[in-house]
Queue: 4 jobs
Job 1
Amino acid sequence: LGQWGAAAAWYGLHAHLFLGGRAALGSLAQVRAQLREVRPASVDPASIAHPAGALASATYSIAKLAPWWERRQLLDEALRHLDVPPGRPREESVHAALRGSIWLRRGHPWRAVEHYRAALRLRESLGESPARIGESLSELGFACLFTGRFGAGRDLMQRGIDMLASGEVGFLIRAKK
């Protein structure tokens, strides 16, 4: 189910589909919840954790495509998925970045900046790759534009683009756009 959800995300199956990523992740969450109740001794607790980040990301992606009257409800649902404490620090940085994206989409750029800064601090403290830090810089810079801090936003985005040059092409293209 996890691989199905990941493949659906990369293929852009972000709609109310029975074969979409959200359907797979919802099923995965149910299976893992049942496993947590039984608590098999041989199973690593991290392997049966709630897929909060993946569910939030899938719900956020659907919200971007949904009609305006459904969008807020879906964004609120995505935030609720992130209420589950992350199991690892790297997941925490992903959750913070997702929160930033959700708040920006909801029209609260100051909250978005707060969460993007948290994601950046976490990634820097964990010694993540320049590409991951560049992604955070780019997102933070973009959110700063919506707070009226145009110079700071442009500078952060440029630093992010420079760091992204060493990583995945997809994030670099998005930052340049």
Note: The mean pLDDT is 86.
Job 2
Amino acid sequence: MTVAAEDDVDYLEILLEPGQVDSLPIEPDRARAIVDELFALAAQERARTAEYRPGFHCWRCPRVSVCPRHPSLSGEAPPNKTPSVTISKSTLSHLGQCPRRVAWKALIHVPTPGDDEFGGTALAMGIGFHAAIATALLDDDPDGVIEAHAHGLPPSERADFLGLWDAHRQLAESESHPVGVTKTELPIGCTAPAPTPSGHHAVTMLGIADAAGREADGTPAVIEHRTTVARELPFLEQELYAVAGALAVGADHIAVHHHWLRAPLEEACTRRVFSGDDLAEARQRLVEAATEIASWSREDATSAPHRVGPWCEWCPYKALCEQHRG
């Protein structure tokens, strides 16, 4: 039998001989029903009727750059077989410090000695609190959810955990532009076209917003909860949330909130509204970042330049990078 193969679909033919597999008895009527079901699935219009569900599986998807959930900033999906890179917002945040760290993480995939190690008590606290508040914000008994998550923690950690929740509640009650949260841990992203001398590339930037909803006047909003003492906005994080969020809901303006839960109440919210020129400028900055990322070579790990600075002290590639700075 001859079939016409689609360009972007891989086919695998497997030939088996008796004895290589175990026979599974099945009733003929049941077998026919299964075959009919499989043919029905094959006949569906996958591209037009499928429901796109973003999540961690997006990282392994070979078609993430053409997925409608990560819309292209050019307005058109990249052509098939366009070279692409997928990068997280946390990795993207290092681009303003050292391009080589970004290249080795997202493009070259250089392993680091500490990849399998956990990040200690502070990181564990942050991860645990983010999981708790994501559930609490959508629950009818948010205080009960937080108490349940705090149960069993050592006294000092429990006090800190509940203190972060109290800080959130005080901010929610006093904020000048409170957000009615409708989603938590929302996967969000976009794909930036990246023209290079060797041709066009695509860079898909992905993140997970802690919360999303609308302000009282209907302005769509994205919220990022911060549990660290430092209050430095990550490089391009606001721009990514603004552009991807506005595209996701078809809005011409959007507010991006950063809630610093260890800051004094009067300084606990950083809010920026993107509209018109702001969104256009944010798009341009993302495209420029994508173009820089696409210019690096996958075969030459030193093609991305390094920048020495205080950030080197905490870089997982510090020792390796120092050996290849010539």
Note: Strands lie at 84-88, 179-196, 199-215, 220-226, 253-260, 269-275.
Job 3
Amino acid sequence: MGKQDTYAMREDAEKLTAIKFDKEDEPVDTYYITKLGQGASICTCWAGGRWCRHKQMIDIFRKAEAMNTGRRYSFDKKKWFAAPKVEEL
């Protein structure tokens, strides 16, 4: 985990997906957060049963209405970044 890592989050009915990007904006890891009901969840990261950063970011992304948008968030810097522009073919 580096100080220049950013994350994007996606959500569907069964799970949330946190995608970690490096400073070159390349995806370097993907974590899946499974919804267990009653607000409980578990993440596939090494701290998954605990309160990991990926689970902490769920509320951050929801409050910013950034879920499923591609916007990036730096957990270490507490800063938002725009979604990268997609080149059209």
Note: The mean pLDDT is 87.
Job 4
Amino acid sequence: MKFYYFGGVMGNPEDPKDPSNLNKHNFSGVMFTHDIPEGDMFVKTAKDIEKGEDIKYLVAIRPYTISPQYLSMINRSMDRIDKGRLQINLISGYIKDHEDGVGGVVGDINDNASALDRSNYMIEFLRVLNEMDQDKDSPGYWRDPNHKNKLDVYVSTTNSYIFEAAKKYGHKIILPYHIYARRGWSDLVEGSSVSIPLELEGMEIMIAITPIIRKTEEELDLLTNHVVRPVWKKGEVPQPVLDAAYFTYEQFDDLVKTLESRGIRHMLINAVPSEEVNVIVPFIKRYVEENKK
């Protein structure tokens, strides 16, 4: 199993969420979320990346804010800094209040578009991305016969429509744990929720999960209402995190082995509340080392 950390922080080697620190703690990748006031994560990645490390930089981007062509250009430039370290996470987007009013998108689809319209844009984006000849050598001074420029893409999937598009074009997906656990999509069809079974065979999947991990059941029993999602919009109320799950060490190991038996070899781990990072990061380091023996 390869573990990725959700919500990395660059520029502070002492922070447990720093890529270099996560690399030392046996994480294979770190995701950087799309949050407008945080700045451009591609620029930050180019500045932050350490060539002697292996950890992947998985940068989340809303497709309506960038073109497939420009993503390809960024990927080629990053490969010249350190080949194969950049990965792209395409997300349809959850818009927070502190991003409201930033704007800057030319076209009908932007941060204020409906979830359905943003999903449809994602599907069209994947089609165009698939039609690009990403492996073709670039002309002029870019030409390098030994270089291929195929984007390494994960598609965040929360409904069957985006899932089917990702499957059609052979993309990897990030699947929320709560959808995986119930083994089906819950799509809205004409205003009603319809359950559609998951069919994951032949796909490369990363499970997104918010684990609470303790040594004993007794410790877990003390953590009632421990995992509550932050409020990012006016009118919202605190709610339990949908992808939260509670594990003893043995139960977490059982989950990993079950996922691996089903061909799932990547987990994206979120820490909620934030101080859980101080449990999760050393736990993963120890877990990976023990399972190498």
Note: The longest strand covers residues 205-214.
